[in-house]
Amino acid sequence: MKNIFKKLYRLLTSTKLTLITLFILIFFMFLGTILPQGGTYEEYKKAFGSALYSKLIPLGILDIFHSWYFITAGIILYINLFLGVLRGFLLEKRKMAFLKDKPRDAREVSVAGGFAAVATVLKKRRFRYRKLIDDKNCTFIFSARGLRRRYVSLFFHFFLGVSIIGFTLSAMTKFDGEIDLKIGDKEDIFLSSKDMGVYQIFRTFNPDKVDKIELELRNYEMEYVLIKERYFPKDYKSTLIVRYNGVEKTKLVEVNKPLRFKGITLYQMGYNQVFDIAIGDTILHLEAGRSFSIDGIDGMFLIRSVYTGKLFTGEEVVDIVPNTELYYRGMDRAGWENRAKLIADKPATVMGKNLILRNVNEVSGIYYKRDDGVPLLYISFFFFMAGIFARVIFPAYELRLFYDKKEHVAYVKGTGSGITADIDHQIDEIERMLKQA
Amino acid sequence: MNLLNLELNLFLVVVALYSISFIFYLVYLVFPQFLGRGRIASSVLTLGVIVHIMLIIIRIIQTRHPPFQTLYEALSWFSFSVVIAYLFVEWKRKVRLAGIFVTAIVIAASLYAILGLSSVPRPLPPALQSKWFAWHVIAAFSAYAAFVVAFCIEIAFLLFGSRARRYELTESAKKLFHRTSYNLILLGFPLLGYGIISGGAWAEEAWGVYWSWDPKETWSLITWLVYALYLHAKITPRWTTWKASVLVILGFICMIFTFLGVNWITQLLNIPSLHAF
């Protein structure tokens, strides 16, 4: 039994396991990018056919990043990395037992000043003793300078572990949704949901105890720039009123500037327009991006986007008269062709019909989310990166020195880590100073 | 002459200087004793990078934002970063054997930008108007530059390491090859890590999703993991030899795929990607 644990420990701390699990993860990630992930049944049926699809589904490779084997490989890798670093400490202690041996391929330096000179030089070179064994004939020193790299390795691998807790917390608390608001629209957002992992697992969701906030779109601004006769969105932003327990807050939300309130974050996700097209007495209530038909004309029409808001042209800012392009696709289902430019409240003749664009309203697309794991992820990755940068940038040296008391000769060998570390230079300097001492 | 024409002409001058430098590095490889033992090649490359700095300044004046929005701008910045990284390494280590590979890569990248892509400046879309934009891209491209130079050094060592005497390489200089490429990867690894994490933080701020297994995200993680594999392998004595060189080459292939291949594969397989450009 003891042997099994020993073998398991060796396996879990081996670099070989690190390499194998890394290879496995890389292979699955590669598969995940060439096979479409998280698609619908219809899409897969079209791509692979029903027979192949039914064979692929049980393997989990169509949702590879959430498959049990991908997550297991990731967890094994983390356990291996963390135990490997811990093992490094134990090995270092064991390594100390071999200090009594003269290091192989060491630099040989004659020391006229005796061991006192060695001690002085090491002190001057800012090497601190980690272990000193004084024998009758010789003295062994294991010393180090700079960063304690094993502690730093443990530090950033630990925070990698904290990030896994962050991801778990994320999976337990995350829920999200999208709402479309016109100016003046109001909508309630609940502060928790039955979709949250924690409720899914423990089934303790109580809809009567769920708190909510009220959201109202006070204003929406759309800004464009014109390049080669085409409108490019420069910015779009919503002024939202958020109400909770009688407290009211007004806040501007735009892309890259979300609003965080009571654990919920509100993002400016997108935009759209709703509008009317009048054809004689008939009025069509339409939404940009959705195709529509007109009585008496075969084929379909489409308005991709209606341009409203402000146009920035160099130093000038002008109000845009709502306008758009009307696309038409015939029964042969060839591509969409631009048929007419529609300007608000101005009639345009299209295929013998008089069309008028009216009542254009912008719709602000708001995405809301609760995810309690994010702060922990920020903290863990901050310290993870700080640890890695420290490990990489600051030099760390370890030096083994064997001093022969009879011959007055020192044998010096060392290692350096970090991009600025130069162990040969350190040993050169020690040699020079020992000769002078 | 408008600024765009001036910029394009300067870009042609940059490519010409990089090409001359490439020829001089080639001459150095064949006849090491000529042309100041490769010093002239380095000087021409330095001149090229000075003109490249002017080119980047002109681009910033035109666009009024950091010059890595479009693929054209990204390739120009990539070439610039790689040359800067290489010149620094060459100055520190005094070894010029990798110069020919570095110049070949930057010439290919620059020509692709000039001949294959539109140079018309575009305004920054709202999602890119973020404090993360510059730092995320600079970190990622600095990592790319470190990886490209490390790859070129490994290739140079594999091809010319055995003819050390011809290029007056001492034993310690040969040792420096591996040490240099290791140090470059050691530097590039956290930079790419920062690039990935800052990208996640940015996506969280812009769209509320810090990680979506987008092909670009996944491939940048693959690249990072391959280099993690290399750094962990270097601890294992059996992996310090040619196997480590193979991992450096594999890492480079993954990096190029992350930078350019992902755009191609997302278009080919019609995979939605936030990073396709």
Percentage of residues in helical conformation of chain B: over 70%
What's the level 1 CATH class of the largest domain in chain A? Mainly Beta
Number of helical segments of chain B?
A: 8
**Overall tally of structural domains of chain B:** 2
Strand content of chain B: under 5%
The major pleated sheet of chain B works out as: none
Q: What is the overall pLDDT average of chain B?
A: 88
Tell me the distance between the termini of chain B: 29 Å
Given as residue ranges, the uncertain stretches of chain B (5+ residues, pLDDT < 50) are none
Q: How many discrete domains of chain A?
A: 5
Describe the protein:
- Chain A is built from ten helices and 20 strands.
- With 437 residues, chain A is an alpha+beta fold.
- Chain A folds into five domains: 1-80; 101-145 and 395-437, Double Stranded RNA Binding Domain (2-Layer Sandwich); 148-174 and 372-393; 175-270 and 366-371, Tick-borne Encephalitis virus Glycoprotein, domain 1 (Sandwich); 273-362, no CATH class.
- In chain A, strands 4, 9, 10, 11, 17 and 18 form a six-stranded antiparallel beta sheet that branches.
- In chain A, 23% of the residues are buried.
- The model of chain A has no long low-confidence stretch (mean pLDDT 88).
- At the A-B interface, helix 2, strand 7, strand 10 and helix 9 of A face helix 6 and helix 7 of B.
What is the gist of this entry?
The complex is a heterodimer of chains A (437) and B (277). Chain A has helices spanning 2-13, 15-34, 41-48, 50-56, 68-96, 114-124, 149-173, 197-202, 374-393, 423-436; strands at 107-110, 128-134, 138-146, 175-182, 186-190, 212-227, 230-244, 247-254, 259-261, 264-279, 282-287, 300-303, 310-313, 316-319, 323-329, 337-343, 347-350, 353-370, 396-404, 409-417.
